[in-house]
């Protein structure tokens, strides 16, 4: 994503300084289109210099592009495919390429040179104006750059969030349905625009909003198949087994960092691609000593390089390519600092086989690996689920390269399970055993960034419904800046990166396994004073960062009225406003963010000199000239142009409110959207996160998951009259005037809410700290409900399926140093192990196994009704009543 953001800023800042707008501003399809107009006397590409990278382009297409550019006043700078390098790159303003995988790509970014697909030229010619090059970038990090999204009748909050997200990830957004649209987002086939698209037979993908949400969560473009209307699989609870994924092309010939001698590539002569960048033509290659090649193998490889037009040398100073096994040694550092191509033997074989150049950092297994792996990874035992064939081989080798231990069999002492989806027995066992379940992005990005990534990041633990994440395997690239800082800084010597030994387990655990983030991480080399690429300084925020990362935005997967992502609008609006503000200032968003010296001088002291960005927010409401006729034909309702009326800043949040069982917005998403927007303007933020709540709103006392979980936050509990008053008067009333009173509820359940909230303030989410509670999947309300309630009070809940497992908490002791909490734990017997269950015959076999488990660990088994945990968490003190215990007699009584 870093490279995507770099290119976003580059494109906005460098949006053609040679042309100034004249005449009225035309409409534009893309929110981010550059609507620069040209003087009638000036050619379209006047004073622009192009280089065309011939890879994947046939001769006819090349000649057509050259002719079109020349006819519009542009000039062609010749490209020599045999060398692959452009010595006078600074003379070029635009590079046309179908891929970013050519040697001078990063150098072009540093020089603020646009890299665009050939389609950019066609689009410019079609409307006779220079379009924004960012949306035509071949950079795979801009994973939405071929997507044009239009929204149907979905809540305004979702539209705003989708608009910001698609722009930041390289795509285009339009409010007008036209033939240029690739994806129409709607809730059902009855949507007016869906009916219009079907009647006009538009070649368009009609998907649920879930698709775009899930794409942004994982930071990749995933398959639309499960989300496609009219029968989306994600809404079918009986969809069956998870579909298998197609082999990912990104890992082809890149699954092993050190191929064996039995996999020697063929002679490249028969595979020569005349229009590709020749890999070895005129190149000198150094084969490092750490490859440990025998004389015979070295001779074979030398012959293959010679057949490709290259030469093997021992003189590093004259070499172009350095091949080694590990990221260490003076030669590796020197070669990297001098910007030579540095790769491993697997990468060299790839070059020989295909005789075309590829960046060794493009694929994980093509770059030299760290000898000691990634810090902390030596403590981990990792297993894999739901990946097969090349994908499995790739992940096995990546686990080993990271320094972790790979296990083919998944056992209780594993620390991590990497899976493509959660429909497997291994995932069920992992949940029961308390093993971390993550997708492959956690492993790839930890390896890429030379540092273990936090497991709390949503993108590593999200598994979109009916999606096999194996489809996006291998799309992560080596992080150039992280590797440079760690292994070959420009100034100073790199420090050895070694895994730090940590004590196994966690406090209160008898399981002999390590957990992430449980110990110090070895710091790497000193920061380079000047990195190869410009770094962002954090001045510019992207419109989507907070939309998915903030906990208060976490909502259930349903797209029902109460689950719609309006909160995402409120949370992302400040970032979108900030982004828009940056886009409107002179020069636009500058490449890589403001330089450090500019940041020190302040916002107004230095303004970048460059092309005026014509990518203001107003283009959201406009349509390209090329689409005006189509738009008139396809759009049945006028668009509202109210974007300018929006405030740059929202009212500061005064209260965070969680609402339970208020049905005022049931089946009325538009009213919900408008009301929540009004409340947010008053300073009231409606959240779904029970751990961050100031006010809990409900019509009466309840025992819902939201209500019970929120009590642990000690909120003010108000009646729904609070919302009535706020919406009626357009002012926030005093919460104390709307306190919820439900004497009958309190009498029925044996506690007073006022006292519970006082104890919750004392407990501070620690009432069940160091508790491990088991729960069967068949309990009323569902296992996930009680897992969240227990977690809100500081405890852990594990699903009990009757399998032998580790107890992750031993006998508990009351912390007498914390008198406020301990006084609410006085009745805790310490050695009791709890299982939440139901009085059903099917549950009895689980009880037998549970008693064996407790006895094995010298603890007292207690099988309880859900009433026990509900009372404890609502009353906010530990208590026991024998009537809550379950036994076989209760099952017999239920039968009779």
Summarize this structure briefly.
About 30% of the residues lie in helices and about 10% in strands. Among the domains are: about 260-365, BRCT domain (Rossmann fold), CATH 3.40.50.10190; about 380-480, BRCT domain (Rossmann fold), CATH 3.40.50; about 655-750, 3-Layer(aba) Sandwich (Rossmann fold); about 770-895, Rossmann fold (3-Layer(aba) Sandwich).
Assembly state (oligomeric): single chain
Radius of gyration: 30 Å
Task: Give the distance, in angstroms, between the N- and C-terminal Cα atoms.
Answer: 62 Å
Give the CATH class of the domain at 772-895: Alpha Beta
Q: Give the overall shape.
A: globular
CATH-scheme architecture of the domain at 772-895: 3-Layer(aba) Sandwich
In CATH, the homologous superfamily of the domain at 772-895 goes by the name: BRCT domain
Q: Major beta sheet, specifics?
A: 4 strands, parallel
> What is the typical, i.e. mean, pLDDT?
77
| Fraction of residues in H or I helices | 25-40%
Q: What share of the residues does DSSP label as strand, in percent?
A: 5-15%
Region (Disordered): 242-269, 494-647
Organism: Massariosphaeria phaeospora
Biased composition (Acidic residues): 622-636
Protein name: BRCT domain-containing protein
Fold and architecture overview:
Among the domains are: 258-366, BRCT domain (Rossmann fold), CATH 3.40.50.10190; 381-478, BRCT domain (Rossmann fold); 655-749, Rossmann fold, CATH 3.40.50; 772-895, BRCT domain (Rossmann fold, 3-Layer(aba) Sandwich). Helix 5 packs across helix 17 (566-584) and helix 21 runs parallel beside helix 25 (783-792). By secondary structure, it is an alpha/beta fold. Strand 7, helix 6 (192-199) and strand 8 form a beta-alpha-beta unit. The relative contact order is 0.09. Mean pLDDT is 77; it is low at 1-40, 269-275, 498-570 and 583-648. The chain contains 29 helices and 24 strands. The protein is 31% helix and 9% strand. The chain has a four-stranded parallel beta sheet with strand order 2-1-3-4. Strands 6-5-7-8 form a four-stranded parallel beta sheet. This is BRCT domain-containing protein. Residues 40-138, 138-229, 377-449 form the BRCT domain. Residues 622-636 have a biased composition (Acidic residues). One of its GO terms (biological process) is DNA double-strand break attachment to nuclear envelope. Residues 242-269, 494-647 are annotated as: Disordered.
């Amino acid at each position: 994503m870093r490279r995507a953001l770099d290119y976003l800023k580059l494109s906005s800042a460098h949006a053609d300084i040679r042309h100034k707008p004249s005449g009225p501003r035309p409409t534009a399809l893309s929110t981010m289109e550059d609507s620069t107009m040209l003087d009638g006397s000036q050619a379209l590409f006047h004073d622009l210099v192009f280089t065309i990278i011939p890879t994947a382009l046939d001769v006819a297409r090349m000649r057509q592009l050259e002719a079109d550019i020349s006819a519009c006043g542009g000039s062609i700078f010749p490209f020599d495919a045999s060398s692959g390098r452009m010595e006078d790159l600074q003379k070029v303003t635009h590079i046309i390429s179908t891929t970013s995988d050519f040697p001078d790509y990063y150098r072009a970014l540093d020089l603020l040179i646009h890299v665009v697909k050939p389609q950019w030229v066609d689009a410019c010619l079609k409307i006779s104006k220079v379009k924004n090059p960012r949306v035509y970038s071949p950079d795979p990090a801009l994973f939405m750059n071929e997507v044009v999204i239009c929204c149907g009748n979905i809540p305004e909050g979702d539209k705003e969030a989708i608009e910001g997200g698609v722009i930041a990830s390289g795509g285009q957004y339009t409010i007008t349905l036209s033939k240029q649209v690739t994806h129409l987002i709607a809730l059902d086939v009855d949507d007016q625009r869906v009916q219009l698209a079907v009647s006009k037979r538009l070649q368009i993908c009609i998907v649920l909003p879930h698709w775009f949400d899930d794409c942004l969560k994982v930071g990749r473009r995933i398959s639309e198949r499960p989300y496609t209307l009219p029968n989306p699989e994600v809404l079918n609870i009986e969809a069956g087994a998870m579909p298998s994924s197609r082999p990912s092309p990104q890992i082809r010939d890149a699954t092993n960092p050190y191929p064996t001698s039995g996999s020697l590539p063929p002679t490249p002569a028969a595979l020569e691609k005349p229009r590709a960048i020749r890999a070895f033509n005129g190149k000198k290659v150094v084969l490092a000593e750490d490859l440990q090649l025998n004389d015979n193998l070295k001779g074979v490889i030398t012959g293959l390089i010679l057949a490709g037009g290259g030469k093997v040398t021992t003189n590093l100073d004259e070499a172009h390519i350095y091949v080694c096994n590990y990221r260490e040694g003076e030669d590796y550092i020197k070669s990297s600092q001098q910007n030579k191509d540095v790769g491993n033997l697997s990468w060299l074989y790839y070059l020989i086989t295909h005789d075309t150049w590829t960046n060794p950092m493009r694929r994980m297994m093509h770059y030299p690996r760290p000898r000691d792996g990634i810090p902390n990874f030596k403590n981990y035992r990792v297993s894999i689920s739901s990946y097969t064939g090349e994908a499995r081989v790739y992940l096995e080798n990546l686990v080993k390269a990271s320094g972790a231990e790979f296990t083919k069999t998944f056992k209780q002492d594993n620390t991590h399970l990497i899976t493509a989806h959660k429909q497997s027995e291994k995932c069920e066992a992992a949940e029961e055993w308390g093993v971390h379940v993550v997708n492959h992005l956690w492993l790839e990005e930890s390896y890429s960034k030379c540092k273990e990534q936090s497991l709390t990041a949503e993108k590593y633990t999200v598994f979109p419904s009916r999606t096999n994440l194996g489809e996006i395997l291998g799309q992560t690239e080596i992080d150039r800046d992280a590797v440079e800082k760690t292994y070959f800084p420009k100034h100073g010597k790199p420090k050895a990166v070694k895994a730090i030994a940590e004590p196994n387990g966690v406090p209160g655990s008898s399981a002999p396994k390590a957990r992430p983030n449980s110990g110090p991480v070895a710091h790497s080399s000193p920061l380079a004073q000047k990195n190869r690429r410009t770094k962002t300084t954090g001045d510019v925020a992207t419109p989507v960062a907070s939309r998915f990362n903030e906990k208060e935005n976490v909502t259930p997967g349903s797209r029902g009225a109460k689950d719609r992502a309006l909160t995402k609008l409120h949370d992302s609006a400040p970032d979108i406003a900030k982004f828009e503000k940056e886009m409107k200032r002179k020069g636009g968003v500058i490449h890589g963010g403001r330089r450090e010296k500019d940041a020190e001088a302040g916002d107004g002291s230095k303004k970048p000199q460059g092309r005026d960005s014509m990518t203001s927010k107003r283009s959201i409401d406009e349509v390209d000239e090329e689409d005006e006729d189509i738009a008139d034909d396809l759009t049945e309702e006028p668009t509202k142009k109210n974007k300018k009326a929006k405030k740059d800043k929202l009212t500061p949040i005064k209260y965070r409110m969680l609402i339970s069982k208020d049905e005022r917005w049931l089946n009325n998403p538009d009213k919900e959207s408008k009301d929540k927007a009004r409340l947010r303007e008053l300073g009231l933020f409606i959240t779904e996160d029970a751990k961050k709540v100031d006010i809990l709103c409900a019509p009466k006392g309840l025992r819902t998951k939201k209500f019970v979980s929120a009590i642990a936050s000690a909120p003010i509990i108000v009646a729904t009259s609070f919302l009535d008053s706020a919406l009626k008067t357009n002012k926030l009333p005093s919460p104390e005037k709307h306190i919820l009173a439900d004497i009958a509820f309190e009498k029925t359940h044996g506690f007073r809410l006022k006292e519970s909230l006082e104890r919750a303030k004392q407990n501070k989410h620690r009432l069940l700290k160091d508790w491990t509670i088991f729960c069967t999947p068949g309990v009323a309300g569902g296992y996930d409900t009680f897992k969240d309630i227990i977690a809100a009070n500081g405890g852990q809940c594990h699903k009990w399926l009757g399998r032998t497992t580790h107890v992750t908490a031993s006998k508990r002791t009351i912390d007498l140093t914390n008198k406020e909490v301990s006084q609410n734990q006085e009745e805790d017997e310490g050695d009791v192990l709890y299982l939440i269950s139901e009085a059903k015959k099917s549950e009895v076999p689980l009880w037998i196994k549970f008693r064996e488990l407790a006895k094995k660990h010298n603890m007292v088994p207690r099988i309880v009704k859900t009433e026990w945990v509900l009372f404890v968490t609502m009353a906010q003190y530990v208590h026991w009543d024998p009537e809550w215990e379950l036994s076989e007699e209760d099952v017999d009584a239920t039968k009779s």
